[in-house]
Each structure stands twice: as C-alpha cells, then as structure tokens.
Amino acid sequence: MKSIQEKAENIALVVGATGIAGSNLATKLLEKGWTVFGLSRNPKNDIEGLQSIAADLLNTESLISALSEIAPTHVFFTTWMRNDTEDENIRVNSAMVRNLLNVLSPKKSIQHVSLVTGLKHYLGPFDAYATTGTLPETPLREEQPRLDLPNFYYAQEDEVYEAAKRDGFSWNIHRPHTLIGKTIGNAMNMGTTLAVYASICKKEGTPFIWPGSEAQWNGVSDVTDAKILADQIIWAATSTEAHNEAFNIANGDVFRWKWLWPKIAEWFDIEYEGYSGTIQPLETVMNEKDAIWKTITNEHQLIEEDLNQLASAWHTDLDLSRPLEVMTDMSRSRKLGFATYKDTKDSFFELFAQLRNDQIIP
C-alpha cells in the first residue's frame, strides 16, 4: 500500500503554521484536498487534518530529523524571527530560509516555493522604518526598486532565488500590508491588539484613543485579510502564468482610519477619540494593563490571561504612526486573474466576532 505522500498530488509544507498567515493558509489548503504539514518550533494541533512537525529552523540537524520522511511538492514560508537589530534580522531570517531549502534540496521534490514578506520591502526595516528622509511613492508597486538599506526581506528573497536556480523550482513572493486574522502569540497582530485594547477601554470606561499619526488618521490606507493572502498564495502557486513573480496583496478596498476607528468603537459600544495633535503610543498604554486584563479574563472566563500573548502594541504603533498614507497597487495580480476581494470593515468585525466566540475577548 502506498503511503499518503506517494498518493497525494500536492504536498504542502507550511513553515510557520501557527501564525496568522500560516494557519489560514494551512486551513485553505486542507479544504482544497492538499496533504499539509505544518512546521513550527512549538506546534499547536488546533487545525483538523494538519500534520504538525516540531523543528528549529536554525538547527540543520533538527530539520533533517523532522523532515526525514517528508518530501513536499510546495513550500510556503510564512514566518520570521524578530531580533534587536536589522543586521541580526538579516543573519537569522536568511539562515532560516537557507537551512530549510538546503535540507530539502536532496529530496528533489520541491516544485514551488512561496515566501511571505511585507510592505517593509518598500518602507524600510524596523530600525529605519519610514524615517530615512525619503518616503516611497504610493500606491506601492512591485516594480519599485529595493531601498539602499539593509533589509531582511531582501535577504530572504535572495535565498529563495538562489535555491530556485540550483534546484529548478518556481517561486512567488507575497507582500501583504498589515495582516488581519486570528492567532495567539503572533508578533504582528493589529486586529487582536485593537480588540483587546477596546475591551480594556470598555471595562475601564475610558475612550478608545487613536494612538497614531495625523498622516495615518487622515490618509488613505488598506490592510490584508489573512484569508485573502491565503487565496493569493494558493492561486499563484497553482497558476503557471503567475510563477516567478512578486505580488502585493491587500483586500482590494481602501479606507481612512478616521472613518474606520469610530466604527470599531461602535462595535464595542465605547466612546472614541481621534487624532489630537500628537502620537500617543499604544505600547505605553498597554504596558500598564496586565492587571486589568487578568481581571477581565477571570470575570469572563477567557482562555488567555497573558496580555503579551494577544497584543503586539509595538507593531500596531509602527503601522499607525507612519508619517505617510500607505496603500498598495494590485494591478500585477489582477491582470493575471486574481480577483478576490474583501471589505476591510468585515475583516475586522468578523475577527472580533470570532475572538468573542472563541472566548479570547469578552
């Protein structure tokens, strides 16, 4: 009798299957009948049908052992590791991609690799985030050249390009804007961060205060629903005409935060305050809310009392304090046939409802 891998036509290895991008991608692949392995340092078995693998991407021996019986046709790389400097980000995150592709190379099974990066490709890395003195022209377009700055996204891309030349597989790069979707313990999680912040405001009877810049409050923006990202990744990986391209990915609509912020406040039935003349970092506010969050979780029997596992205020501040409006051009994938769309208000409200239903927020 043939093994499941020998029988399966498409065998996916989702790297970072516990994150926002990876978990939504794994779920969609399973729905489409793929055999799906999820690789992460600390696997969670909360996706039915996902075959979890524990491995350390920085330890080659760990990867060799964990992947000894697995020969994926498609590798989807959706994770990264945050470090103190961009030089360390480059060293660590490029090694993660390189180690995995080197370990899989002798199997000769890989047909396609997809890498998820993001808009810091155009805006610059964390420690020079939109502060270089030269702001990029928006809408952001895939053909815009790399910035003359160290950037771990560029290093990850280069590892994919080099391995593709060596092993003959096709590739795609996907560049989402801020991802909106459910996960716990993710380093970049605006939707859940805002839901937790709003829940704290409701408990304390305080207004839902805009933490960001005037440019973001008044300017045009977009975001990326994690399910839309998953749809584009699968479409590109399975559409020959889309191979070997980098794609921006956002919901397909645009909005202004001065329009959306009051609607989020209304969903939670709380008052709000808009831009008041200065940036008011959310990280400063949330650093003092551990005790009140534990009170909320006890009162409502929520499943996660560790605020740091839910909220990533530092990253939300980076997004909302940008000194320019940021939106992405989707022409490249639209012209090739990717037409999936999501209303951004629905992205947030559906997430909030899911978080409430799953007893993550009250």
UniProtKB/TrEMBL annotation:
Segments crossing the lipid bilayer: none
Pfam families noted in UniProt: PRISE
InterPro entries linked to this entry: NAD(P)-bd_dom_sf, PRISE-like_Rossmann-fold
The PRISE-like Rossmann-fold domain, residue ranges: 73-362
CDD domains: 5beta-POR_like_SDR_a (cd08948)
Gene3D superfamilies noted in UniProt: NAD(P)-binding Rossmann-like Domain
PANTHER family from the UniProt entry: 3-OXO-DELTA(4,5)-STEROID 5-BETA-REDUCTASE
Name listed for the protein in its UniProt record: SDR family oxidoreductase
Species of origin: Flavobacterium piscisymbiosum
